Amino acid sequence: MDTTGYETAAAGSGFGVAAFVVGGLVLVGVLIWAVRFGIKVMRSESRTPRGGEHPTLPESGPVHETRQRREPDEVPRAEETGRRLTPHELGSSGSRRSGDQSRPRWNAGSSGSFGGGGPGAT
């Protein structure tokens, strides 16, 4: 086993110190090159968006929130159709716009909560 390199570095000779300095400079140079290469690749991958790639406002202007009351679509009963409906015949469980668009209000004399002291059976 050849240990002359280790012995030279341990002895503090000029050659050993110079070898470590040169090796460190080479390592730093490689790291600087890698960072610059990474920056170059990132710049080539990023691009400015072209026209039509961003969403735009509609011609009528910004869209605002609307409030409406909805009511569920009723499921036909088996007596009405004469047979049971299968799941694919039911369709989506959607809703439709209610004919009465007034806001719901609490009933007079009711607190609106369970056990709220309203009239009830004792």
UniProtKB/TrEMBL annotation:
The residue ranges flagged as biased composition, category Gly residues, are 112-122
Where does this protein have compositionally biased stretches of type Basic and acidic residues? 43-53, 62-87
The annotated region (Disordered) lies at: 43-122
Q: Which UniProt keywords apply?
A: Membrane, Transmembrane, Transmembrane helix
Give TM segment ranges: 12-35
Q: Which Pfam families does the UniProt entry name for this protein?
A: DUF6479 (PF20087)
Q: Any idea what this protein is called?
A: Secreted protein
Q: Which organism is it from?
A: Streptomyces spiralis
